[in-house]
Amino acid sequence: IEVVKSKKGVSLSQRKYVLDLLSEAGMLGSKPVDIPMDPHQKFGINDGSPLKDVHQYRSLIGKLIYLTVTRPDISFAVGVLSQFMQAPQKAHWDAAIRILRYLKSAPRKGLIYRPNWHMDLVAYSDADWAGLASDRRSTIGYCTFVGGNLVSWRSKKQTNVARSSAEAEYRAMAYEYRAMANVTCELIWIRQLLSEFGFGDPSPMQLWCDNQASVHIASNPVFHERTKHIEVDCHFISEKLQQKLISTNFVRTAEQLADVFTKSLGSGRIKTICNKLGMYDMYAPA
Length: 286
What we know:
4-stranded antiparallel β-sheet, Nucleotidyltransferase, domain 5, alpha+beta, 2 domains, 5-stranded mixed β-sheet
């Protein structure tokens, strides 16, 4: 990981690692693309002919996983392709090559950390219910900021299959609450860590979610038969709200930064979110 100091702040990147990866794959002269994964492509277990060199695919995905340390913009795409490590197909290999072409477009991009006067803890939470075509499982994602700087993020596929039924809306909400509960635990851990470093801030930590129903029920927990499956996570969030540890807020989907961790996005959306996550090319000419 390379560290660059400037008047803007401190930047972390894996520039050399990316260039070495492109060179190893023979992709230095490839045509770059502006998104890591095609939003319209759905992956399954039968996506063409099986790869002859399984080790090559596994090695590439493993290296891409390490690259997500400073490149959160590829976290979702790498997470999807890592599900096919056991028996990768040609379509999965082609998608991995696309990620390399995306990295080719900005190999020097990294995370910048600016000195800010505040230490506010803010998080964005999102869930994509049954969005994976291969097994109809859901993906939850979140990102957390301290003082306006990105400090942690996650893109995780759920282990349970989301059943399609008349209660689809409530099951989708269950995954929203699971994502909110996970990021709440993350926020509490970060606050405890900051407290040990002598940075105490009693103000509630802000949790942004793009599901109005989830935000409303968390603030006004009224349960009935159809919401029993979300009671545990919802009670947990409600408890933290009553303790004034967090405050839940609604954010429009167009401004949901956690979207990049739960689904494939278009070029314009990727660029916007990357800017708000604090991802820049510190080597770019001024």
